[in-house]
Amino acid sequence: METKKLFKTYLKYLVPTIGSMILYSTYTMVDGIFVGQGVGPLALSAVNVSMPFVTLSFASAILLAIGTSNLITYSLGRGRIQRGNQYFTMGLSLALGVSVVISLVAYLNLNSLALLLGSEPEIHEYVLAYLGTIILFSPFFCMTYMFEIMVKADRHPHLAIIFMVVSALTNIILDYVFIYIFHLGVRGAAIATGISQVLPCIGYTLHFLSDRANLKFAKFKMRRIDLRDMIRFGFPAALTEMSTGFTILVFNQVIANHYGVNGLAVFSVIVYLMNLIVNTMLSIVQSSQPLLSYNFGAKNMTHVKRLRKYVLYTILVSSSMMVLLIQLFPNVVLSIFLNHMEADFIELAVRAMRLFSSSFLILGFNIGIGGYLTAVQRPRDELIISLMRGYIVVALVVFTFPNLFGSSIIWLCLTISELITLIISLYFLRRERLHRTQA
């Protein structure tokens, strides 16, 4: 009976979390579908090449947002309302300043940035058009994410859902208008994405200026210790976000060298699928962490073991369904993003998607084990797994294996790096069990 109750509680946390994450992933995929179908594979490649910069913008927002949120909630918990307001204002001011500086530096060095990100001659104009436009809206990306986290600390979490839906619908509608009606191409897609961030940013600002808000704008004094704490709290989450952009950047560089723009177009589709599966895995882990931490704190290790099993089984089922879909219907999945494809392009894409999707079976377990280790008070182990998975192992494998074993191995590089990371993850998991047994 107790097991059934625990499973129901797990589902209660899982379903809304995974639902909102899938909604977000679907909304970003729709953006890619409009670009691929309405403009073409070269434009889709340009969007993919620009993604690491977008990831950097979000990472800077995450760094400050998570750190600021921790300081605010801690202050409010201790009854220091004015101090919480000062942290709120300081965090937003820092985010605005940092995002404007990043945008200014990036825009003044647009051509160099595009080349650094891996732009090829065939898509360079597309990259300049998309990246140049997105950079102008970058501060809104940063501020909207900051507000999204702040509004939860303000005890109005429903506004985050409302504005996310507004943003998604705005992006979808404007994608259609700018691409199919005004024929603005990839620049139109960037404008649509930018405006979809401006509207919620305005909405959040109006909320915090209203009487409904608990957090208020206040004068503050910048202290070094506050800045240090912000960075300390927000760094792990920012590191995870940046790892996605780093992985895309590394693959873009190598794929462009071996396959050219066709390879980049194929990888663009794969990236959207990868983001869907990674976000799904993250939502599974995030929904389980409060339950794991609570039961671990209560020393109810029977429940901790069961929850760990639920998480790993959910990951296995979810990733297997995704892999099965790609293995059985790769042409259907590909046709969702692109049309009017030549036979050799389809052949390359189908082979690449089938090979690359094998990594989806493994990466979920690395994310799951890392999340579990954080929940049971072993964040350092999780940080090592994240560094190995998101930076060190993937870079070593992607830059060395294609030169040793040929171009085709590129599509298996993530699988190989995830397998290596899984061995490391299992080592930390076993060490945690031994430590708990001996304690």
From TrEMBL:
Record has Disulfide bond as a keyword: no
UniProt keyword terms in alphabetical order: Antibiotic resistance, Cell membrane, Membrane, Transmembrane, Transmembrane helix, Transport
Localization, UniProt: Cell membrane
Cellular component terms (Gene Ontology): plasma membrane
Domain of life of the organism encoding this protein: Bacteria
Matching Pfam families: MatE
Gene Ontology terms for molecular function: antiporter activity; xenobiotic transmembrane transporter activity
Principal cellular location given in the protein's record: membrane
Membrane topology: Multi-pass membrane protein
Name this protein carries in UniProt: Multidrug export protein MepA
Species of the source: Falseniella ignava CCUG 37419
